[in-house]
C-alpha cells in the first residue's frame, strides 16, 4: 500500500486501518482476534485507551501482551505475557459460545454487501476452484460475537456482490434474516478496508460507507467496490493515526513492519 | 514387594505400526505448533495409505501426510502454515478431488471431539448454522449433522455427531513411561481429541520419572491409563515449534513450502527428508544436525527463540 500521508514521513494505509480498528475497541471489552491487522489493532488499543480489554486467541491464549507479533496464531511470540493458557473449548466455547465476547475481529478474503464472508475457496473457471484457509475460528466469531469487525482488501473482486462460499455469516440477506436464522451474535459492525470504513444500515443491514481514508476519492472508493454503492459527497475522512499511535506501532508493536509496512 | 507398573515406552517405528492403513487418526498440531512431525514422517516411510485425519486446525504434519498420498479424508475446522503458506498439499488435493474435505469450524471440531470424549452421541452448537460450512457438511457428511428440539425450551438446535477417532497422536513436551503427559502452552483441542479417541500415542520430547509426575499431578493433561504408547524422541516436532523447548525452523518451513508448491519437487523433498533418512536421527542430521537445531532453543522465560523476529515471506 502506498504512503497515504505523502512526503515520506507520512503513514501507510495499513496504519490507518490499524488505528481505525483500535478505535472500535472500548476499554473493558472482551475481544477475540485473528492474526494480522486485527491483532495489531487490538494490541494498539490495549496500550492506549483500552488497558482493561481482554484479548483472546482461539487456540487458548488469554490476555497476552506480546512484544513481537510473530507469523500467526501458532507463534509463541503472540502468546507472551498471557495470564492464562487454556484451550479452544475455553476461549471459543465457554466465552464466545456462551455469549461473552464483545468483538470478533477477523480478516476475510471476500465480503458481500451484508458482511457475509468467504475464507474457504474461490472459483477459477472451468469448474476448478482454489482453496484457502477455511473457517478456523472465523465462522464461530461471526456467528457468536456481539459485534464482528472485518478487515478486507478493497477491490471489486473482494468487496463483491455475491460470494462463492459463505464461510462466516454476516447479516445474511439483510433485514432481520440473521435473527430469524437463529444466530445469537449481533453480526458485522464495521468493515475496514484499505480505502475506507463501512458500517451497516440499521434496517436493511446493507453496507454503507462511513468514512474514506486520507487521499481516497469517492470515485476511487466506488470503483473499488464490486456492487453499486452510493458514496455521499460529504463523507468524513477516516482520522489519521496520531503521532503517539504511530510511535507505538513503529517502535513497539510492529517494528519489523510485518503487518503495517506497505 | 511392590509390583511395578508396566512401561509403555515404544519406538517410533513400533508406535507408527499401531496405525493401520485406513485408520482414523486425530492429530494434535495447530498450524506450525507442536505437530507430530517425526510420527508423520514415519507413517510415510511405512507406506501408510487411506488415512482419515481429524484435527481442529490442520498444519504441517497433516499437510505432509497428504502430500505423500497417505490421506483420503480430512475432517477439520480449517488450517494453514501460518505466514509460511496455506495447507499447500491438502488444498491442492482437495482442488483435484483426491481428498474429501469434511470441513467445519474450529469450535465445531472441538465440540465433535467433546461429544466423543463424553460418550454422548452428539453435541448442540450455535455457530456454523446459516452458512455454506453447514451446507457443505450436509453434502459431504449427511450423517454428521442434524437437528433436535430442546425438550426444555422448544428451541431448535443444530447438532453435530460425536467423533471417535481410532487413535489420537499427540506431540508433548514431557511424559513418563506410563504415558502421563504434560503439555506446556495453550492446548487447543488436545484434551478433547485425546479423550474422544480409542487410543492415544504420545510423542514426548523428554521422559520424566513417574515420581516427578506424582509430585505435580495437576500438570498431567493426559492420564497414562488412556495412553497406548509413549515414544521418547528429541526434536520430534521439528520443523514446527515446541513451546519452551524449541522454536519453529523458519528456513526449513520455507524449504518445505517451496517444495510443496510444485508437485514435481515434492517427491525430491520426501526423498531427501523422509525416505532418504532411514530414521529420525538421520533426519536430524539431514536438517543440519544438533548444532543447527540448538539455535532454535527457546529463551528461559519467553518460550520462543530470542534474538529478533523470525520472519516469514509474505
Overall description:
- The complex is a heterodimer of chains A (262) and B (314).
- Chain A is an alpha/beta fold and 262 residues long.
- Chain A contains 7 helices and 13 strands.
- Chain A has a single domain (13-253), classed as Glutaconate Coenzyme A-transferase.
- Chain A has helices at 13-23, 37-47, 88-97, 138-144, 177-180, 218-223, 243-253, and strands at residues 30-33, 54-57, 61-62, 84-85, 103-107, 110-111, 117-118, 121-125, 128-131, 147-151, 188-192, 196-200, 207-212.
- In chain A, 54% of the residues are buried.
- Chain B contains 12 helices and 11 strands.
- Chain B starts with 11 loop residues before the first helix and ends in a 20-residue tail after the last helix.
- Chain B has a domain at 122-161.
- In chain B, helix 2 (37-45) packs parallel to helix 3 (60-67).
- Chains A and B meet through helix 3, strand 9 and helix 4 of A and helix 4, helix 5, helix 6 and helix 7 of B.
Fold topology:
The complex is a heterodimer of chains A (262) and B (314).
Chain A (H helix, E strand, L loop, with lengths): L12 H11 L6 E4 L3 H11 L6 E4 L3 E2 L21 E2 L2 H10 L5 E5 L2 E2 L5 E2 L2 E5 L2 E4 L6 H7 L2 E5 L25 H4 L7 E5 L3 E5 L6 E6 L5 H6 L19 H11 L9
Parallel strand pairs in A: 1-2, 1-5, 5-10, 10-11
Antiparallel strand pairs in A: 2-3, 3-4, 6-7, 8-9, 11-12, 12-13
Chain B lengths: L11 H5 L7 E4 L9 H9 L5 E5 L4 H8 L3 E6 L11 H8 L4 E4 L2 H13 L3 E4 L6 H9 L4 E5 L6 E6 L5 E9 L5 E2 L7 H7 L2 E9 L2 H6 L11 E6 L17 H12 L4 H10 L4 H7 L2 H6 L20
Parallel strand pairs in B: 1-2, 1-8, 2-3, 3-4, 8-10, 10-11
Antiparallel strand pairs in B: 5-7, 6-7, 8-9
Quaternary structure classification: heterodimer
Mean pLDDT of chain B: 96
CATH class of chain A: Alpha Beta
- Describe the biggest sheet of chain B? 8 strands, mixed
Radius of gyration of chain A: 18 Å
Helix-strand string of chain A? HEHEEEHEEEEEHEHEEEHH
Q: Nearest-angstrom radius of gyration of chain B?
A: 20 Å
What is the averaged pLDDT score of chain A? Answer: 94
- Within the CATH hierarchy, at the fold level, what is the topology of chain A? Glutaconate Coenzyme A-transferase
Number of DSSP E strands of chain A: 13
The proportion of residues in beta strands of chain A is: 15-25%
- Low-confidence segments of chain A, given as residue ranges, are none
Q: Domains counted in the coordinates of chain A: how many?
A: 1
Helix content of chain A: 10-25%
Identify the most extensive interface between protein chains.
A-B, 58 and 66 residues
Structural class of chain B: alpha/beta
Bulk shape of chain A: globular
The rounded distance between the terminal residues' Cα atoms of chain A is 5 Å
Amino acid at each position: 500500500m502506498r504512503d497515504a500521508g505523502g512526503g515520506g514521513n507520512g503513514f501507510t494505509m495499513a496504519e490507518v486501518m490499524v488505528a481505525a480498528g483500535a478505535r472500535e475497541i472500548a476499554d473493558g471489552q472482551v475481544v477475540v482476534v485473528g492474526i494480522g491487522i486485527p491483532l495489531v489493532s487490538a494490541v494498539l488499543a490495549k496500550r492506549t485507551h483500552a488497558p482493561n480489554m481482554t484479548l483472546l486467541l482461539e487456540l487458548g491464549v488469554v490476555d497476552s501482551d506480546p512484544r513481537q507479533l510473530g507469523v500467526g496464531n501458532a507463534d509463541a511470540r503472540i502468546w507472551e505475557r498471557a495470564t492464562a493458557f487454556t484451550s479452544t473449548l475455553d476461549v471459543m466455547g465457554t466465552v464466545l459460545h456462551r455469549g461473552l465476547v464483545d468483538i470478533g475481529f477477523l480478516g476475510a478474503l471476500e465480503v458481500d454487501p451484508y458482511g457475509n464472508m468467504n475464507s474457504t475457496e474461490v472459483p477459477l473457471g472451468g469448474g476448478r476452484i482454489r482453496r484457502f484457509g477455511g473457517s478456523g475460528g472465523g465462522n464461530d466469531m461471526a456467528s457468536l460475537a456481539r459485534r464482528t469487525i472485518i478487515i478486507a482488501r478493497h477491490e471489486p473482486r473482494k468487496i463483491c456482490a455475491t460470494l462463492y462460499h459463505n464461510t462466516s455469516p454476516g447479516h445474511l440477506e439483510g433485514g432481520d434474516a440473521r435473527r430469524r436464522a437463529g444466530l445469537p451474535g449481533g453480526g458485522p459492525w464495521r468493515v475496514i478496508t484499505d480505502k475506507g470504513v463501512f458500517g451497516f444500515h440499521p434496517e436493511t443491514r446493507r453496507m454503507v460507507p462511513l468514512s474514506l481514508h486520507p487521499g481516497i476519492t469517492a470515485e476511487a472508493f466506488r470503483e473499488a467496490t464490486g456492487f453499486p454503492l452510493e458514496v455521499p459527497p460529504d463523507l468524513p475522512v477516516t482520522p489519521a493515526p496520531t503521532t503517539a499511535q504511530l510511535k507505538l506501532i513503529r517502535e513497539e508493536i510492529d517494528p519489523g513492519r510485518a503487518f503495517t509496512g506497505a | 514387594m511392590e509390583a511395578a507398573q508396566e512401561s509403555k515406552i515404544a519406538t517410533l517405528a513400533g508406535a507408527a505400526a499401531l496405525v493401520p492403513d485406513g485408520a482414523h487418526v486425530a492429530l494434535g498440531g495447530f498450524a506450525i505448533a507442536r505437530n507430530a512431525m517425526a510420527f508423520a514422517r514415519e507413517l510415510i516411510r511405512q507406506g501408510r495409505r487411506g488415512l482419515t485425519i481429524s484435527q481442529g486446525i490442520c498444519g504441517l504434519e497433516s499437510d505432509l501426510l497428504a502430500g505423500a498420498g497417505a490421506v483420503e479424508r480430512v475432517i477439520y475446522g480449517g488450517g494453514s502454515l501460518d505466514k509460511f503458506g496455506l495447507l499447500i498439499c491438502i488444498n491442492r488435493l482437495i482442488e483435484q478431488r483426491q481428498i474429501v474435505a469434511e470441513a467445519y469450524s474450529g469450535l465445531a471440531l472441538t465440540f465433535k471431539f467433546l461429544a466423543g470424549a463424553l460418550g454422548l452421541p452428539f453435541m448442540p452448537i450455535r455457530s456454523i448454522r446459516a452458512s455454506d460450512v453447514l451446507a457443505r457438511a450436509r453434502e459431504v457428511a449427511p450423517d454428521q449433522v442434524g437437528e433436535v428440539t430442546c425438550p426444555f425450551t422448544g428451541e431448535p438446535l443444530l447438532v453435530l455427531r460425536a467423533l471417535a477417532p481410532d487413535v489420537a497422536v499427540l506431540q508433548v513436551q514431557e511424559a513418563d513411561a506410563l504415558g502421563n503427559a504434560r503439555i506446556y502452552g495453550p492446548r487447543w483441542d488436545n484434551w478433547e481429541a485425546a479423550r474422544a479417541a480409542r487410543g492415544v500415542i504420545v510423542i514426548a520430547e523428554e521422559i520424566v520419572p513417574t515420581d516427578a509426575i506424582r509430585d505435580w499431578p495437576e500438570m498431567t493433561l493426559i492420564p497414562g491409563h488412556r495412553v497406548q504408547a509413549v515414544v521418547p524422541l528429541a526434536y520430534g516436532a521439528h520443523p514446527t515449534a515446541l513451546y519452551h523447548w524449541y522454536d519453529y525452523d523458519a528456513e526449513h518451513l520455507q524449504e518445505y513450502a517451496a517444495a510443496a508448491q510444485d508437485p514435481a519437487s515434492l517427491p525430491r523433498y520426501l526423498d531427501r527428508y523422509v525416505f532418504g533418512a532411514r530414521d529420525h536421527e538421520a533426519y536430524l542430521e539431514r536438517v543440519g544436525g544438533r548444532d543447527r537445531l540448538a539455535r532454535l532453543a527457546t529463551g528461559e522465560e519467553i518460550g520462543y527463540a530470542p534474538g529478533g523476529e523470525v520472519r516469514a515471506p509474505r
